[in-house]
Design brief:
By secondary structure, this protein is mainly α. The protein has 3 domains: 118 residues, no CATH class; 220 residues, Lysozyme (Orthogonal Bundle); 44 residues, Membrane-bound Lytic Murein Transglycosylase D, Chain A, CATH 3.10.350. It contains 19 helices and 9 strands. Helix 4 packs across helix 13 and helix 8 crosses helix 9. The longest helix has 25 residues.
Length: 441
Amino acid sequence: MHRGVPVFFMLLFSITLFSQNDIPNRENRAHKYINPTLGTYKSLSKFELKEFASAKEIDSLWIGELVQSGLYPQMMRKNILEVPYDTDGISVADYEHLPKEKLQKRLERLNQESPFNIGYNEDVDKIVRYYLRQDKEWVERLLSLSLYYFPMFEEELARRGLPLDLKYLAVIESGLNPRIKSRAGATGLWQFMYASGKMQGLTVSNYIDERMDPKKSTAAAVDYLDKLYRMFGDWDMALAAYNSGPGNVSKAIRRSGGETNYWKLKNYLPRETANYVPSFIAAMYLFHYADDHGYEPYKPDAFYFATDTVRVKQTLKFDQISDAIGIPKELLTFLNPAYKLDIIPYVKGKDYNLRLPVSEVGLFVANEDMIYDVAKKELEEEKIPTYSEQPDRIRYRVKSGDFLGRIARQFGVSITSIRQWNNLRNNTIRAGQFLTIYPRR
């Protein structure tokens, strides 16, 4: 699945959602609690919302139990990062506070615990030190983001029986930013191109891009990784194929005379892919040894295991939800990144869900009818776009003078992709022939 450069380095100063100064504390929100004996009520400008004290107490106990159960400290110790395509400009001496012998021993320990081939070499050494030179605050924000995303990644990987260490792949792909888009058009935590996302069942419309849906895109990425492993029988090779596509790996095997060991094959791969597995190993190192290097991630405002979803029964804007239950719009956007317009559409025959902290789910459900009534009146007074899906695919008729390179440029896709979609053995096409194209969006 060739998607261009991983976007980790586009993000060094861009991750702000989990900054403790960015999301208001509950104590600062513009509402108050009254009448606690009969139930909790919130006094807001548009709503008088009821809440049931017994249900709220259960929610609080449940979240507290999870946080104190040992899962949170365990996640704090395990965890992530990525690198430039080219390590030639990086010196092993760039970060001197890690003796080579200590790094070798730590990598040996990781190798004993992982299904990946983790060993010391100069490429891994350079990239580890490159990470350690990055802005400390930024790395700590990334570690904090992992506290939200990693449990969900691990849940999906465990369900499919795949190595949990594959969670680090999302770090070098996207820097754990579900709304990131690469120059090539790859989108989301796992950087799916439009066509590859559609082939994995991810919907793209004017309202929603499921490549940016953390849950759905993770399931799609895990499915794709499983296919790649079954294809190559080796996780290093599967990672290389995830980065540059199975076709490029296959070509590298041919150029090398049949070599199937990534470390012997890497010089025949695209330059970026040659450093992809070392970057993955360096990310594993950084997260496993974050404490030893003095990183102190903070507890974010939300944890994946402390959120739940509600199926919407009517079109809702994030602003309306925020006004109704007093949750910051920034947090709504973080929890529901797939909604491109910050609007959850209601479309007959489709299920679109709103993800909220568990403590707010009960509040939303208890006041659902009133929230919908107020929202409906507001939406009737303003025009919002009609829901429409992006074209799934195009049936293109080859014209006289066409060749695959020209068609690929026209739709912003690769020649290799066109050949794969149409089972073409070579680049030969003829006028009048029909081709299936998944245009990039």
